[in-house]
Amino acid sequence: xxxxxxxxxxxxxxxxxxxxxxxxxxxxxxxxxxxxxxxxxxxxxxxxxxxxxxxxxxxxxxxxxxxxxxxxxxxxxxxxxxxxxxxxxxxxxxxxxxxxxxxxxxxxxxxxxxxxxxxxxxxxxxxxxxxxxxxxxxxxxxxxxxxxxxxxxxxxxxxxxxxxxxxxxxxxxxxxxxxxxxxxxxxxxxxxxxxxxxxxxxxxxxxxxxxxxxxxxxxxxxxxxxxxxxxxxxxxxxxxxxxxxxxxxxxxxxxxxxxxxxxxxxxxxxxxxxxxxxxxxxxxxxxxxxxxxxxxxxxxxxxxxxxxxxxxxxxxxxxxxxxxxxxxxxxxxxxxxxxxxxxxxxxxxxxxxxxxxxxxxxxxxxxxxxxxxxxxxxxxxxxxxxxxxxxxxxxxxxxxxxxxxxxxxxxxxxxxxxxxxxxxxxxxxxxxxxxxxxxxxxxxxxxxxxxxxxxxxxxxxxxxxxxxxxxxxxxxxxxxxxxxxxxxxxxxxxxxxxxxxxxxxxxxxxxxxxxxxxxxxxx
Length: 523
Hints:
By secondary structure, the chain is an alpha+beta fold. The chain contains 14 helices and 13 strands. Among the domains are: 2-21 and 28-46 and 246-311 and 335-444, Poly(a)-polymerase, middle domain, CATH 1.10.1410; 154-227, CATH 3.30.70.1510; 469-523. A hairpin with a 5-residue loop joins strand 8 (185-190) and strand 9 (196-201). Helix 1 (30-44) crosses helix 8, helix 1 (30-44) crosses helix 10 (337-357) and helix 8 crosses helix 9 (291-304). The termini are far apart.
């Protein structure tokens, strides 16, 4: 067991322990500092900024209005990356959960996501429910052409209401007074036939409250939409998921609190997620990891090397409705010279640990018990098992329960994940003297282990209904849709970065010109 304290010119990095014989270059090597700097820079470019983060919070409020308008007495909370990272990641989506006094069962949750999907589609969003998923979920694509954090269009607060018949003067006046007094409309205009009303509201949230509620209260309304959904309110700007299982909400706050005990844990998580997506380890639809699993793996690792303390679930065992509804943005820490060597070294240690040290056969990734085994969880392979649950190849314990987050992975997938870490570390060390190149390769075109089969084509099979070719075709279509959505989100994120860079450049040019004009005027 080795203990390290990496020293710097500006600050002292904290002690940490490596409880295995590491084969990495000396922690005092200058290259670790350069790798750490590069990691911090790449991570900071993953942040869309405070304005975009706050827009996600407004979208939460707007989704809540829609759900309550169809009769469901529940609040909507944010979970996932916005809670654990406290930023909105470039190219990411937003996770929402409906929280009520009594959490609905699977059958009821399936009906709710279908009903909410119908209402969102009515409002011009592209929503499709997955009611038969293990956790029923609703997925919604972004509609708006505007980038997160960019100024709202002047039509973003305008809505149009279409009526099933021509209204008389009294009915039109009553509706005008209703949406002005009850829903915050500032101006209302009618067409000559009194069948269409266009209203401008005080805010985008007022608009999103009025659209579904006014329709539910007035049977004469057959259509209520933003005037132009391409420039609609915040809820139209982001891809998001909605479910009714509060487990992810509690886990997000628990893991977020753990990550904040080390100022650069979020940087490490962001770089690992970029690497995971690029090499394919983050790809749950093909029987690999979800980004949430990688978060648990990082927290486990940081506890293992004593960077952060063991995570206690008892301290945070409060009811979901008592958790903070709207998270607060917290920018990523700037890199201090004295901390950078540790950041680079920890990144390599993570790859080494899950590539060469962690015992996938017997041990379980856990945030509260570093010695948890599959045998103690009942997940080990016995003589009478055939590779199906409760036997698991890769054990990742859910922080708040006894479920296995790595249940999707079969033997081949587990080997793929392990070899990806081995290949990632090899790539890092092969380019050790060139940090820019090594980090760029790992996040853009990392080495990818070979994989011959995909477990997703073997799931949920029923030979009485589908032939092998039909099943493979069905799974291929599902994966194609998933990857097209993922690619669309990633491309949107890249455009958002480019847009922000162009805005910054334009701002600098404008300031230079104004400065030149002032100087010319004074002369």
